[in-house]
Amino acid sequence: MLDFNTLHNPYASRRMTAYAKNGMVASAQPLAAEAGLSVLRKGGNAIDAAIAAAVCLTVLEPTSNGIGGDAFALVWTKGQLYGLNSSGPAPQQLTMQTLKNAGCQEMPAYGWFPVTVPGAPAAWAELSARFGKLPLTEVMAPAIKYAEEGYPISPTVGRNWEISFDRYVHKLKGEQFENWFRTFAPQGRAPKIGELWRSADQARTLQSIAETKAQSFYHGDIADKIVQFSQRHNGFLRKVDLAAYKPEWVNPISVNYRGYDVWEIPPNGHGLVALMALNILKGFDFEMKECANSYHLQIEALKLAFADGKKYIADPSQMSLNIEGLLSEGYAADRRKLIGERALQPEPGNPPKGGTVYLATADGEGNMVSFIQSNYKGFGSGLVVPETGISLHNRGNNFSLDPNHANCLQPGKRPYHTIIPGFLTKDSLPVGPFGVMGGFMQPQGHVQVVMNTLDYHMNPQASLDAPRWQWINGKTIEIEHSFPEHIAQELVRRGHDIKWSMDTSSFGRGQIIWRTADGILAGGTEPRADGHIAMW
Questions:
Q1: Which of 208, 220, 309, 496 is 20 to 30 A from 351, alpha carbon to alpha carbon?
Q2: Is residue 100 located within the same domain as residue 32?
Q3: Cα distances (Å, whole numbers) of residue 239 to 66, 119, 494
Q4: How far apart are CA 139 and CA 131, in angstroms?
Q5: Of 116, 212, 356, 425, catalytic
Q6: For 54-63, 318-327, 451-460, which range has the lowest pLDDT when averaged over its residues?
């Protein structure tokens, strides 16, 4: 297990690693973390706390997730790790020909075309039914109260709300988008930081989901409202799509890195990218973090992993995906040989045949949860179902319209998914949940957090505080303003196209909870957001 006496924080931070024994909830929104803790104090477990925090986030941080989004979870309980994929498929009426008839050359980001079946409400109900201790009505009560009574907008959420509003004013034209403005900009503007915001519609919807264990969302009156809205504006969601939906329990996938097993949800999510990169990187020695060669090797490995991920990752129920081959030692060795002294233009290989919120919870009984949910880009599609407060996500924006691509659009198919929860174990014992939200930054954030922890022996807070980088495309790398300048200059000399960025939000927002060998919980939270750890 990790020796926390050797873990240090070489970076200046406004936070220190937090320690507790009885329970911990780490979230980018303080009120959500405290809601999760309140559920723990009432006798709930880490699963209940994760649901409570997640549902609260749909109200407290609608700029990143919502009732109409998707969710994934990794749950450690009773000595085993479980994976839940609660992402939804494309509607049966949505076909490639439909988009071509509309003149689309690629998947749109707004409107009905990118809307897939929402999976988040089903995730809450499924996790509660299988592993929860408290009634779902009690677990969801804090979120319902915040929606009904209101809450003051936090700084990061307020800034992102204003950005989304400014974009939507120009992008969302037509009657079908009017309810977004009524719901999320009732005064004709984004709510200001510190201003009270509430949604009675969200409160009623969440109450109904809690009382019916999400049945009303997929089979009842909420489903009727979603379908009526869809039909009124020539959308594609129908009752059959909602009624047929069920989340899927999956076997998590892993690679061993420095003696620890790093776990991810299998495709259609792209946690596979992080695992492929780590598999390549474990063939190198990393004695020093702050040197150009260390960053160069990480960047090159992730570029190769993304090249494969973007070619091969798709809904495994619709196609054959050779995960074992992509994660094999032999394939990692072949990809590793491509890395030289200069930046490469990444190309996919040939393996052997064969806007998001993240939170972490742990309790005193040994349960731990890595949970993530999203509307994808900001508020999602720009569509809000009248009288419900449900902002429908735009996850289908990731579909390809190339009929020969693995991730091509098909009715009933789930798209390539960017949200990924992570988990770390050693010798079949839990170390804990971790995650870094943020679209295509997520597997890059996972690799950086894992390496900060296992290669550079940083504590949880230091792992999150460290300057981040992200591969954009080709040889282009964005780096944070705090990234060491002399290393950036050396990377330029190696052929990397380095772009400095002052926008820290684009580098993801993470949470970590590690459990020591003696049962102490150690947590870190994101300095790039309104991160908070609630504990006792």
A1: 496
A2: yes
A3: 20, 15, 55
A4: 13
A5: 356
A6: 318-327
Q: Do 91 and 133 reside in the same domain of the chain?
A: yes
- Those residues whose C-beta lies under 8 Å from the C-beta of residue 75, and which sit 6 or more positions away, are 47, 81, 82, 83, 84, 127, 131, 367, 368, 369, 370
Tens digit of each residue's pLDDT (9 = 90 or more) over 376-409: 888 999 999 999 999 999 999 999 999 999 899 9
Tell me whether residue 356 is one of the annotated catalytic residues.
Answer: yes
- 137-150, pLDDT tens digit by residue? 999 999 999 999 99
Give how far Cα 244 sits from Cα of 114, 117, 148, 217, 221, Å. Answer: 19, 10, 31, 12, 16
Residue with token string 């679209």: 439
Burial degree of 216 (CB within 10 A; 0-12, 13-18, 19+): buried
- CATH code for position 262: 1.10.246.130
Domains contained in the chain, number: 2
- Give the percent of the chain with pLDDT over 90: 85
> Alpha-carbon distance 512 to 519, whole Å?
15
> What pTM was estimated for this model as a whole?
0.94
Spatial neighbors of 281 by CB under 8 A, at least 6 apart, are 257, 297, 298, 301, 447, 451
Answer with the one of 398, 427, 462 that is the final residue of a domain: 398
Nearest to 70 by CA among 393, 440, 388: 393
Tokens read off for 207: 């109450």
